[in-house]
Each structure stands twice: as C-alpha cells, then as structure tokens.
Amino acid sequence: MQDILELAGVSRAAAVVDRLRGAQPADIVQQLNELDAAEAAEIVARLPLEKAADVFDHPDLAEPQTILAALRPAVAAEILDAMAADRLADLFRDMEEPPRERLLALLTREARAIIDALLVHPEGTAGSMMTTEFVSVPATWSVAETLRHIREVEGARETVYAIYVLDPITRRLQAAVSLRRLISGDPDALVGSVARFDQPVTVLPQADREEVARLISKYDLLAIPVVDEKNHVLGIVTVDDIIDTMIEVTTEDVHKFGGMEALDEPYTRIGFAEMLRKRAGWLAILFLSEMLTASAMQHFEDELEKAVVLTLFIPLIMSSGGNSGSQATSLIIRALALGELKLSDWWRVALREIPTGLALGGFLGVIGVARIAVWQEAGIFDYGPHWMLVALTVGLALVAIVTFGSLAGSMLPFALKRLGFDPASASAPFVATLVDVSGLVIYFSVALVVLSGTLL
Amino acid sequence: MQDILELAGVSRAAAVVDRLRGAQPADIVQQLNELDAAEAAEIVARLPLEKAADVFDHPDLAEPQTILAALRPAVAAEILDAMAADRLADLFRDMEEPPRERLLALLTREARAIIDALLVHPEGTAGSMMTTEFVSVPATWSVAETLRHIREVEGARETVYAIYVLDPITRRLQAAVSLRRLISGDPDALVGSVARFDQPVTVLPQADREEVARLISKYDLLAIPVVDEKNHVLGIVTVDDIIDTMIEVTTEDVHKFGGMEALDEPYTRIGFAEMLRKRAGWLAILFLSEMLTASAMQHFEDELEKAVVLTLFIPLIMSSGGNSGSQATSLIIRALALGELKLSDWWRVALREIPTGLALGGFLGVIGVARIAVWQEAGIFDYGPHWMLVALTVGLALVAIVTFGSLAGSMLPFALKRLGFDPASASAPFVATLVDVSGLVIYFSVALVVLSGTLL
Q: Which of A312, A344, A354, A406 is the best substitution to test chain B (most B C-beta atoms within 10 A)?
C-alpha cells in the first residue's frame, strides 16, 4: 500500500515536472512557494539542472536553504555549482546554521573562493550585489575572436550583452562594448573599435546600491562593471538585480515614511513578534516625543481654564501643520533621493518653503475664519462674545503653523542627511510630532497676544 | 568685430562638440540642460546625427521641443527621423502649439503614421510606452538567417537582444528568443528551436505601466512584447523605459503618501503657482475633514468644561492613533503594489491588524499610565484627586485608538482600491485625519464611562 502511494506520488511529481519543463523560472518559483520543502525538493530534483539553477537564482524563492537541505547532497551540490555567483553569495549571506556548514562543504573550491570574496562586501553595496560571471577580453583581440569566445562561455555568464575590454598587460578596463555592436561590426577590427563611448561607466565596490541604480538608470545600461581603484573589473551588477533592488528600496522607503522600521519580508510572511518589533520602536519614540504636547498644555493650563473655547481648535490647527510638513518632507525626500537637490541646497529650499507655507497657511486661515463666522452667525455654535478675536487667533495661528510645518518638514530630511542618517527616516509621523509640539506653543502664543485683556 | 565674436562663438561650440563626441548621452544632456535653447541647439547641430538622436531619446533632456524649434528645420527633421518611435511619441504627446504643428510637418509620412498609432494609447499604459522598433522574424527562418537580419537592422532597432518569432502566415507571436541563445545556437536550426520557454511573456496595450514593470521584474526580461488580443506584436517596452517608469511611479507614490498631488516635474523646476495648486487641494480637503474634530469637541463641551485635565492628553492620544494608522497604511500600500495582497485578502489583514493594534496600544497605554503616575507622585504636575482614573482613561483610550488606527489605516487602501482609486492615495495625513475625528469620540466615550460620577 505504502509502495502504491509512493508510486502515485512519484508519478504525480513527474507529471508536474513535465509541465514545468518549458515554464518560466518565476512561475515555477511561485508554484514551489506553495509547497512544503520536501515536496518542493522532490520537484526540483526532477528538473533539468539548468532549470533548477534558474529557480534557485530567482530572488522570490521563499526557502532556498530548506529546499537545498532536503535534497540529496549530490543534487544540491550540482545545483549550487550551476547557480549565479551573486545569488550563491546572497544565499550563504542569509543562511543560518545548521544547514550553512553542510551546504558550504558541497561547494567546489573555486566556488568557495568566489563566495568568500563576494561576502567581504557589506550588504547594500555594489560589491555585495555583483556577480563575477562576466565576459572580458584583452584589447588585442579582434571582433571575430571575441564573438567566438562569447559563443563558448555564453552558458556560464550572467550576461554576454556587455563585454569588457581590458588592457592586455595591466588588465585594467579600457572600454565596454555591446554584443549588438560586435555582431554588426567588422570581424577583423580590434574589439575596442566598436565601443561607442570614450569612458565606460563604472562603480566602486563600496558604492551604495542606490548609487548603482542611479547610474544604470541614467546611462541606460544592461550591466555596470564594479572596479577597484586601479580600474580592474571585480564583477558586474546587472539590470535585473537593480530592478529587484529598486523595488526593495521603494518598499523600505515607504515603510520608513509611514513611521516604522522597514520589513525585510513580505507582510504576508512576517511573524507576529517581528512585526510588533518593527512597529513598536518608532511608535514608542514618537509617543515619548509627543508627550511634550501634554507638558506644553500643562504649561498653558491657566489659559485653558479661562478659555475652553481655544481647545476646540487644537486638533484642527495642529494637524494642518503636520499635513503641510508631511507634504514638504515627501517632496524633499524624493528630490534628495533623485539627486535633484544636494545638501548645500537647503537654504534654497527654505527660501521657497517659507512663501509656500505663508500662502497655504493664509488659504487655510481664511477657510478657518469663515467656518467660525458661519457657525456663529448661523447659530450652530456660540463661540462667546469675543468670537471674532477667537477666529482671528485661529486664522493667524494657521498661517504661522502651516509655514512652520512646511519649513520644518522640508529641513528635517536635510538635517538627517547632514547627521549621517537616511533622509527617508523623516517620516510623516515624525514631522507631525515635531510640528505638534511647536504648533501648540505657537497657537497659545498667538492667543496670548490676540486675546489678552479679553478672554485671557 | 561682430564677425570675430561670432567666429569665437563658433570655435568654442566646435571645441565643446569635440569633447562631447565620445561622451555618454546622459552626460551631454546634463550639460545641455544648463544652457539656453539657442546655445543647446548650436551644440546639437554640430553633433553626429546618431549622437544627437541619442540626446533627444534621453528622458532627462529638459526642453527638447524648444531646442528642436531653435534648430534649422532640415536638421530638426533629420533628428526626429533618427529618434526612437516611443520617445518621438512622448515628445509630441507633451508638446504644445505653436511648435507642435511645425515639427509634425517635418516628420516623414511613415513616422507620422507610427506616432499617430502610438498616441492612441492613453498615458501610463503599456501601449503608450512601447516602441515599434523591434526585431521579428518568421518561424521558418534559420538561426543563421535571423542573425544576418539582425546585423542589417541593428542600427534601427531599440533592442536586438530579444527577437520575436512569428507564425509565417498569421503573424501571431510564437516564441521569444534571445540574441545570446542565437549566437551560440546551431546556425542551421530553425530560429524557434533556441527558445527557452514554452510561452513568451506578453502584455496587452491597455495594461497599466506598473503591471508592465511587475512582469519585466518578475521574469527578468530585457523587453516585453505588447500584443493585441490575437497575439500580434504591436511593439515592445524595454527595460530602460521601465526603470525610468519605476522611478517616476515611486516619486508619485511618495508625494501622494505625503498627502499631496504628485508633481510632474522636479522640485527644483516646478513653478510656484503649480506647486501651490498641487499642495492646496489635499490640504484643504484634509482641513475641511479635520473640522469635524472641532464639531466633536463642541459636542463634548460640557465634559471639557468640567474636566480640563482631559484636554492635556488630546494631542498625545490622537497622534498615537494617526501614527499606528500611518504604519499600517504604508505596509498595505506596498503589499498591494507588489501583488503580495489581493483585494479579497482584506479580512485576513483585518484579523492580523486587530491583535497587532491591541498589543501596540497596550504597550503605549502602559507608558502613558506610567507617565501620569510618575508626574503625579513626583509632584511635577497635579492631575487632581482622581488622577488614577484619569490615567486609566488615557491608557484604555490608547488601546482602543491605536487598535482603531491600525485597523482603519490598513483597510483604507483596500477601500480606495475597491472604489477604483489608487490605493497609494491613502496618505499618512489622510489616515491621521480619519483617526483624529474618531479618536476624539473614542477618548471622550472612554472618559464618560471611567470618570462618570467622579469628574464627569
């Protein structure tokens, strides 16, 4: 009975594999992610080796380590050997013991050396994203020789569309040529002659991944060479890795802008405790800072007792400051990320945000005054005999607080960047908290001036 | 004298052009953007035609229309003819009269027909991003024939790395093959034999640009074919266009999440009036909604008069709800954008956010109660004889409001998506406003229960 069941399992797996033979790796990954590791391993073991390696090269595969650990060591070793060097390094970077040592032992000596070299680079740098599987040829080769070489190594290279031409003696990078230029070029010409540009665009291994993305996007590259100070090519970062990086960075930035630590995993997969941890930290910091509002209000307790009418507008006025601040912060975070603004541009931005804040604050102030006047005159609510002065206080406070919000919101990303933090940490809640505390002080100060002698 | 000056100008321009001959288009664009249109036109006119077309193909060129209008018509016509079809369509899509008609007249009849076909597709769709300059061959061709064809057309195609194999009679798409596979394949084999996958990944012209980006990223494509319902290839979208799109979409999403309309232009280049317009709209909507807080407080006026001590914690409690809501919104916006969550998953998220909110609210509640107790016992501030009940009110209200914030913040993107809006419109200020109004009602309701018979 057991045998028959097993047999049924085997033939089912075989049927699945048959369907997957011509499928895209991304689609196979999606199906494997829905199985447990043992089932997934059964499928993977039956895939052609090249396909299996493609599956493990795909960044969306949920538990590559567990599946590898569930495979027969010989099969796992073959797959590891066929994987792209950069993905292999990523795999071991994230891996925990026990499987780590056992899987490392399956690697060839060369693969181990390559991985060790890649793992030196800190996560998030060009060095940590690069792969060593690129095509390079000496400048003395002809176009035809280069094409012959590409045909031979095609299967073992991450991309063959960018070819790096090296000085035959120093092995320094001289030029980058594209396959399209090569195949339409004169076969007898030197390989460097089909280069379109004087200087290949390169990046140092310690460059941030966002800088790599910026360069690939700016120069429309399919791959960028990572070089050392002497212009030796250490590896390349390809455009598909950059797209994955951009998606990851965007997610992190949105999470941070929402006022939390960025999740490393999809919302659907992260554990409850981890989720709490990522959210509780910033929530507590913001809460402790916001406690200053209670202190500020305690300071104005006498005024509050005398003019309870003022409390009615506290949330309205404070939130307006936070909203204008959040707008300004979102603008500046992106402008800094895109390189449209530099740190030294802060005063230019300040000079722009002050009139913007005054105009927006004036606009809201007029609405606010009108609201109070209409409610009063229509008899909806009685703001007391001095309602005109109360309206004036609200209007003036709105101008001041919206201006302050725009200014504070736009300066916060600069300040964070200056202090060495990520400007994207200037979250909307962070700005709102900053503006709330100062907003209260501004509101009561305006009230003291306008209402002194009447309500206060 | 005039002549000599002109001569100096000419020789200076010639020297500049000499330097630019081997430069990357992106770097030339950067330099041109710092000149006025007449100066830029002078440089462009001296560049080799291919280079000039590359410059106009670059999306960062600030004022392509003005520069084209400043060129001699013959030169402008040559450049327009050499440009990529998708960029040409973008150019005319954005162009205003007068130059539009004049430049359109410079196009060849074929170019006009192609542009007219591309301009049919609404902005932001796959159809509007595609170019018609792709390589396609009938399935009856051999690998060698295909390579010969690629060599001939290389200069006039946006990419030659993806080749589309069509049914020789119906011209429907059968397979996509890569140049790398072709050059290492058997020259006499049929072109389709080197295809790696059963089904080419395709997209319909009406697909959203974010869907195009998702597919290119998921399947690691260099280009994706845009096909009609009958699987005829209409054009392709290339990976470099997608990267530009992703950057644009991210900027728009951050702006929206910051609570404003997305800017179409860099912060540094947008006009003052346009900037006000983009910010004032949402600011006013949020302000009008937030006015409900004033109404809510008016409703609880009696309670406020009796227990001024309650007002001290209003900003603290309300902002905590807004912050937890902003966190939840940022999580869900990204999870929806990445396809990790579908509309039908809303209840799964709700079931997750409620315990998360309770835990986070409990955590903040404990801090809040401790704060009041410490201030009271240390004699920093006197919250009155019923300070313990006040502390209990604050603690319970925090639990309720943070839970409500997490729930509302996570459901808002779903609700917007359900109603056909962009879930990214669920901005942090939007959520904060939503939670502020309800937060006040929750706070006073809790107070009425806890403090009834003592303070209230």
A: A312
